[in-house]
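Appendix B, record 7
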Amino acid sequence: MKRTHHNVIPQLRTLDITGFSHQGRPALLLRDPLRLGENHVVLPRELAPALSLMDGTNDLSGMRAELMVHYGVNVPVDVLQQLVDVLDGNYLLKNERSFDATERARRAYRSAPFRPPMMAGQSYPAEPDRLARHLDGYLASVNGAGPASAAGRGVISPHIDYPRGGAVYAAVWKRAAEMARAADLVILLGTDHYSTGDRITLTRQSYATPYGVLPTDVALVDALAGAIGEQAAFAGELRHRGEHSLELVATWLHHMRGGQPVTMIPILTGSFMDFVMGRGDPASDPQLAGFLATLDQVIAGRNVLVVASGDLAHVGPAFGGAAVDSAGRQRIADADDELATELAAGRADGFFAAIKRVRDGNNVCGVSPFYLMLRLLGSVEGQRVAYDQCAADAENASLVSICGMVFG
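Structure tokens (predicted):
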């Protein structure tokens, strides 16, 4: 039901908002990480300031005044009302409608037999035979050393899309092939791109790939939830449904096992930006300490492989920065090399210190999974397997850098 502008104080939910050209005009694409609605929303880019004012403190008259004073934009109240109605109709506002939709989606997710491969048929083939040929094609192009020892304990894998990152995926997973086949438990740590403050987000749901189901060890998840608190552990669980960072890596893991299942603990890891800005320290954070101590206990005696799914730098206009030229690419490569040196040496504190020193100026999205993997593995050394810088816009002015590493 529509509401008049007199009593509406809209607050936008956490969304994925990107700029693009729509019918020849600048536009914004609004996507919901929780996928509560069926549709994406496209808006004229000139309405971007209005979205920024939807923070739960402004009614529509106040928003109109702010737009006039601070942005020089004259947006009638009835247009703002229409905008609110569109957002509300797609569950993009924090209110009772979106809360109820979230609860319905959570019940459906938890009652399903497994978490389906959401990107199958879009980002990679959904049919197992076609998928196998597709990934084997990447593997066939890899030259270099053979598989690392089956006794290896850790893998760093990218989670960028396969068309851009396929060569790096293939290089690291070919190197980790025996490790993947030997494991009887995989701890999968993946970037939670839309975390709203959750450090660790668990799920009791199993992940499926086109090859079948990778079962989640519910008893181990329960132990971890007990360590960090049930509410904290599952508050953002629904983000597992649409997050690609675990799915794309789990698919490669399953492929390297020839389609044979392995028990997993799928874990989304949230932003460390408050630590980066000096508000606390991950090394002394009590929740992370309890999580890591419990995880170390529950995996004792198992043949465990820890996989950290994350990318490196995200720079350029696509991420709100300046265009990257050849000199900029070299600077990013040098910064990535410093991070890779700390990672390969197994120095979690040194890796985080390098991120913190520049206030994560390159927007490294693998900070939390990489750091937590090193903390869990303890004294370990890694080997760099592959590195690449991938275009992130049509003009090749933005890039995402990725790497692959294995740890003995």
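Remarks on this record: The longest helix spans residues 326-344. The chain has two domains: 5-104, 119-407.
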